C-alpha cells in the first residue's frame, strides 16, 4: 500500500522550510496524535533536487508500553452462509451442463 492508495486526508500536513542547522520545530495538533501506535511520514517534495535525504526526525511525547490485544470476539464458520452476504449488484446466473 502506498500513500496514493489511501483515500484519507492526512491527519496533519507540514510545509517544510530549508533548515540546514536543524533548528526548526513543527508543532503538531496534540488531539490528533494522542495514543499513536503507528506513524507514516510522506515527503512529497524536496526543493527541486533529484533525491531526498532525511537525517533526523525527532518525536516528542510520553512513552507508554504497547498493548497487544488478543482477539476477543470471533465467529468461525465451517461453510459460508450466502444469506449473510447480501449484495444487490450481483446478478445470479444459472448454467446448465448437459
Please state roughly what percent of the residues sit in beta strands, choosing from under 5%, 5-15%, 15-25%, 25-35%, 35-45% or over 45%.
Answer: under 5%
Kindly, what is the distance between the CA atoms of the first and last residues, rounded to a whole number of angstroms?
45 Å
Helix content: under 10%
- Could you name the ranges where pLDDT drops below 50 across 5 or more consecutive residues? none
**Derived structural class:** little secondary structure
Count of separate DSSP helical elements: 0
Shape verdict:
elongated
Q: Domain count, please report it.
A: 1
The major pleated sheet works out as: none
Mean pLDDT across every amino acid position: 75
What is the CA-atom radius of gyration, in angstroms? 24 Å
Count of individual beta strands: 0
SSE order and pairing:
Layout lengths: L98
InterPro entries: Galactose-bd-like_sf, PITH1-like, PITH_dom, PITH_dom_sf
Pfam family, one: PITH
Family: Belongs to the PITHD1 family.
Description:
This is PITH (C-terminal proteasome-interacting domain of thioredoxin-like) domain containing 1. One of its GO terms (cellular component) is nucleus. Belongs to the PITHD1 family. With about 100 residues, this protein is low in regular secondary structure. It has one domain (about 1-80). Helices cover about 0% and strands about 0% of the residues. It has no helices and no strands. The chain is elongated and about 60 Å long. About 0% of the residues are buried.
Amino acid at each position: 500500500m502506498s500513500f496514493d492508495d489511501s483515500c484519507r486526508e492526512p491527519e496533519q500536513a507540514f510545509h517544510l522550510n530549508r533548515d540546514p542547522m536543524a533548528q526548526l520545530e513543527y508543532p503538531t495538533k496534540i488531539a490528533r496524535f494522542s495514543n499513536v501506535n503507528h506513524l507514516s511520514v510522506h515527503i512529497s517534495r524536496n526543493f527541486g533536487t533529484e533525491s531526498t535525504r532525511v537525517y533526523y526526525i525527532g518525536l516528542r511525547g510520553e512513552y507508554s508500553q504497547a498493548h497487544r490485544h488478543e482477539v476477543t470476539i470471533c465467529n468461525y464458520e465451517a461453510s459460508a452462509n450466502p444469506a449473510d452476504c447480501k449484495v444487490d449488484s450481483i446478478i445470479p446466473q444459472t448454467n446448465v451442463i448437459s
